[in-house]
Amino acid sequence: MTTAGDLMVIRPRRLELPVWLIVLGLVLRWLWRGLWWCVRHPVSVGLAVAAVVLYREFGRSGLIVPLVLAGLVSAVWRWKHEASWWAWCAGPVLGRCRQVFVYRRAWREAMTLCGLTRTYDHRVVLPRLLRVRSDQALDVLTIRMVRGQTPEEFQRVTANLAYAFGRRHARVYSERPGEPPVRTGYWAMVLGWVDRLRYRDRPSLVYLVVVRTDALRTVVKPFDVPSVPDFTALPLARREDLRHWRLHLLATHVLIGGATRSGKGSVLWSLVRALAGGITSGLVRLWVIDPKGGMEFAMGRPLFARFACKSFEAMADLLDEAVAVMRERQTRLAGAVRVHTPTEADPLVVVVIDEMAALTAYLQDVDLRKRIASSLGLLLSQGAGVGVLVVAALQDPRKEVLPFRDLFPTRIALGLTEAAQVDLVLGDGARNRGALADQMPRWAKGVGYVILDGTPEPARVRFSYISDDHIRELAAGYAAPADAADILAQVGRETADEPNRKPLPRPRGPLLPDSLLTFLDRDADGGEPR
Ligand SMILES: Nc1ncnc2c1ncn2[C@@H]1O[C@H](COP(=O)(O)OP(=O)(O)OP(=O)(O)O)[C@@H](O)[C@H]1O
Ligand SMILES: [Mg+2]
After folding, report:
1. Which of 115, 201, 389, 519 has the fewest Cβ atoms within 10 angstroms?
2. Distance from residue 261's CA to the centre of ligand 2 (Å)
3. How far is CA 279 from CA 223, 271, 368, 395, in A?
4. Residues facing residue 210 across a β-bridge
């Protein structure tokens, strides 16, 4: 009997299991887990089984001989073809080791302290590390995000993640970094299908690239001069993954933002070097403006078709003439093509401007400044399609200094002085996505951030360093042809004729709809429709 106020303790009935059943359950559970692990790691299991079998058959030599043989094969492979050795042998093995011994061990702590865990149903949920792939310089971690997370949350803590795993640099990509390989030959179709599956869009994954060995710490030697430059892929810099960063110059304008002494000169000279083959063959004309009185470019004068470095009038004239060339091409090419293809008769004109702010902001002559601004505006808004391109470098990317910032489709940010300037150069949100151009260490001359084709995330690159000797060599070996400055002679060329137009078929009846005719009639008759 209970009465009001009595304390009632309700205990659920406990199911008492016999001990042997509990032990059996635990054993079965561990067996199942072990079996599942074996299914998921066939290579490790196969190697372990082979090692045991060999040891039982041949004793210790059964282990030593295969190991020595494998080492020899690996050494020869690396010697003969290092790229495939990294891709198929060293990369996967190193990745697996680093996954187990580096990343897994610190995973929970790193995720928690970087604020990437969530609590759900009183449980802490962690992003899952699925795979680690290594190459010579990078570890690429494939991570499954917690439900409800976005890649931006990882991008915001990119630096924290790098330091959490004992490195200085990392990058977070929302899509698998790298492009699918180009397949040719017998198996191309089948491998193409495999690639399509491997590179399919997987929105629940995020890729963390940890820079294991910083390939950009050493100065990058100048690249070989291509005899026929590919304007869609000019090698200018080294990427963190040791590959070349190639600039797509065709039909774009390039803006280089960098504080003083950050290495803007090496970007411009790397570009000149990459184009040098085309300069001698007549495919490219460089029109160079160097407002520093020739300090940067005078040494390479023979390479340039036009050069202005002392008088600002001459610079304004040069820009006006570039507009004239652009106008002539527009008239001639209208209706024929939409993007100009450089030829010897119709070369690519690249207007290179160092210290652009000297022309757009610091020039005291207001009339001249306005003239320059209007030519630059025209070139930047209409020149790309007809092969009159602008490549400009400047220190201060603010709107007051460079009003045309948004007209440059391709941007490069070298070391900058303020965090806000990074977004001004590379576009909104670039710093949050990992372009820490304002935190460039002192040694990082010529290191910058660029946006790669097809990925929104910026990549870190180091431009090749072109010394004075290299410039002299270039000037001696790749001088512009004698008639290079003469491109304006083309401007007087006949423009295309008016096309023959077919007469439009005229409709027979009235040209206006009935309702409108009735309305007009009513208006004419002073009210009543007829
Ligand atoms: N890619 C590079 N690798 C190594 N060192 C470099 C690189 N580029 C430039 N440097 C060094 O950095 C210094 C500054 O370079 P540079 O004159 O090109 O900078 P800048 O940005 O053009 O400076 P300014 O604004 O004064 O013109 C130079 O002494 C040069 O030796
Ligand atoms: Mg400079």
Report:
1. 201
2. 7
3. 17, 12, 30, 28
4. 139, 170
What is the model's pTM? 0.79
Stretches in the chain below the pLDDT threshold 50: 493-496, 526-530
Apex CA 14: angle with CA 8 and CA 16, to 5°? 155
Q: Quick check: helix, strand or coil at residue 463?
A: strand
Chain centre distance of CA 487: 34
Pocket of ligand 1 (CB under 6 A): 219, 258, 260-266, 395, 445-446, 462-463, 465
Q: Ligand 1 centroid to 454 CA: how many Å?
A: 29
Identify which of 256, 266, 290 to mutate to test ligand 1's pocket (most ligand atoms within 8 A of the CB).
266
pLDDT digits (tens, 9 = 90+) for 80-133: 998 899 988 999 999 999 999 999 999 999 999 999 999 999 999 999 999 999
Which atom of ligand 1 lies closest to the CA of 260?
Answer: 25
User: Which CATH code is given to the segment(s) 90-177+196-214?
Assistant: 3.30.980
Helix (H, G, I), strand (E, B), or coil: what is residue 361? coil
Measured in angstroms, how far is the CA atom of residue 264 from the centroid of ligand 1? Answer: 6
Q: What distance in angstroms lies between residue 318's CA and the mean position of ligand 2's atoms?
A: 20
User: What backbone phi and psi angles, to 5 degrees, belong to 276?
Assistant: -55, -40
Indicate which residue's Cα is closest to atom 30 of ligand 1. Answer: 263
How do 458-463 and 170-173 pair as beta strands? unpaired
Q: Which two tokens stand for residue 159?
A: 């630096």
Distance CA 131, CA 202 (A): 14
Q: Which sequence spans correspond to the domains of the chain?
A: 90-177+196-214, 234-492
One fold for 90-177+196-214 and 234-492? no
**Main-chain dihedrals φ then ψ at residue 164, nearest 5 degrees:** -60, -30
**What is the predicted pLDDT for the residue at 520?**
63
What is the predicted pLDDT for the residue at 465? Answer: 96
